[in-house]
């Protein structure tokens, strides 16, 4: 099914600035997630992520990405499992807490170990416990593909949305 491109096929240099690219991307509304895992010392780690998508139903795969500059990148590169939590509209402050630097992101956060041992956040609209199946270095990010081993969801819950640089 893969048809390789001819060797002469290369992308043309962008004809826009990084600012213009970010502004254009901001017009696509996404959900807001928090991805959690355990570090090598078995302590919880978590980060707010808006780059989350489904990949496949069979097998059940999802993807998300993280900047190469993220402080917790090494934890997610090395862990065997992580959980992706889709946040509800009322969880904006939680998303902001897990996006902050220099604080204890877990202060006051209710969570429990999931079936794979990773921390599961209370109150998420949906949660996906994933095996850390694949990692791809692309540009200034790493793309993670997770094979979903367990999932849960709430019916009729409004999601938290990220659009034009703001959570709504």
Automatic annotation (TrEMBL):
Keywords annotated in UniProt: Oxidoreductase
InterPro entries, per database record: Flavin_Rdtase-like_dom, NADH-dep_flavin_reductase, Split_barrel_FMN-bd
SUPFAM superfamilies: FMN-binding split barrel
Transmembrane segments: none
Residues annotated as domain Flavin reductase like: 25-168
Family annotation (Pfam families): Flavin_Reduct (PF01613)
Taxonomy, superkingdom: Bacteria
Oxidoreductase is among the record's keywords: yes
Family statement drawn from the similarity comment of this UniProt entry: Belongs to the non-flavoprotein flavin reductase family.
Name of the molecule in the record: Flavin reductase family protein
Natural source organism: Acidovorax bellezanensis
């Amino acid at each position: 099914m893969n048809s390789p491109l001819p060797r002469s096929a290369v992308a043309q240099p962008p004809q826009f600035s990084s600012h213009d690219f970010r502004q254009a991307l901001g017009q696509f509304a996404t959900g807001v997630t928090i991805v959690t895992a355990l570090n090598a010392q078995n302590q919880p780690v978590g980060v707010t992520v808006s780059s989350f998508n489904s990949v496949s139903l069979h097998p059940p795969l999802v993807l998300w990405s993280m900047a190469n500059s993220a402080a917790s990148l090494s934890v997610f590169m090395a862990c065997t499992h992580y959980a992706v939590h889709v946040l509800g509209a009322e969880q904006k402050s939680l998303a902001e807490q897990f996006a902050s630097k220099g604080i204890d992101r877990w202060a006051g956060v209710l969570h429990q170990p999931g079936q794979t041992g990773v921390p599961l956040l209370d109150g998420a609209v949906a949660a996906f416990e994933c095996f850390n199946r694949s990692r791809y270095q692309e540009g200034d990010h790493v793309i993670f593909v997770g094979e979903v081993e367990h999932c849960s969801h709430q019916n009729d819950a409004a999601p938290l949305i990220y659009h034009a640089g703001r959570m709504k």
